[in-house]
Amino acid sequence: MQSLKSSDKQLKDLPVDKYSKAVSDGDLAKTKAKLESMGHKVTVCNTAEDATKLLGSLIPDGASLGAGASITLEEIGFIDYLKNRTNIKNYRSIANELQGKNDWPGAAEARRQGMCADFFFSSVSAISQTGEIVGADLTGTRIGAWAYTAKNLVLVSGTNKIVPTYDEALKRLHNYQLPLESARCRIAYKNEGSQIANIAVIATGNPYSKDRVHVVFVKGSYGY
Around 51, how many Cα atoms within 13 Å sit in the side-chain half-sphere? Predict the structure, then answer.
């Protein structure tokens, strides 16, 4: 995040101090309790290594998985872990391989199938202490699996993404995460930046699919 901020003049007024720091253990505990009261499963990991070990343990041999683009998943080492896991059907890897061969329709189909996988891994834009989980993307490949299609939805978040209220979660998305993602896109894709086409909000748990949503908090600042 700091490297992006220093390289992009459009980020000069970015509210870094407000949204980049990990919250206190007390606020984390309150958020965990609220999410659990809504029917979500919540695990807190002390380190990135612990988080990747946990995520790997969730996936049984022979299972299928999809994963949305996520700086958080990259930073904790989970994406590298998946590269060495050969006994699963990894639709993310399949899609990237097809895209590398310029087979864009095939890559799109693999990503679509990944939305219906046994496990879908993603990160979030913000999680409020009042229990709302907020995510967004441009193409649908990140939040398309959230509402129903993935059998198990695993959302990984640094504790820097916890905010007091739902309103603050939306402000974090628009005023902090989007500008940073736009800066990354200007570097990576040489375009004018990103935009938000889709927003997903998990307001409470599904009473018919208890623990389908598993929130994994990693203590510290991960992703943006």
Answer: 30
**Tally of domains within the chain:** 1
pLDDT of residue 8: 75
Q: Does residue 153 carry a pLDDT above 90?
A: yes
Amino acid at 6: S
In whole angstroms, what is the distance from residue 84 CA to residue 86 CA? 6
pTM: 0.95
Measured on CA atoms in the order 84, 214, 63, 70, is the torsion positive or negative? negative
Does residue 41 form part of some domain?
yes
3-state DSSP assignment of residue 127:
strand
Q: Do residues 204 and 132 touch, judged by C-beta distance below 8 A?
A: no
The answer to whether residue 214 sits within a structural domain is yes
Query: Secondary structure of 59-103 in the HEC alphabet?
Result: CCCCCEEEECCCHHHHHCCHHHHHHCCCCCEEHHHHHHHHHHCCC
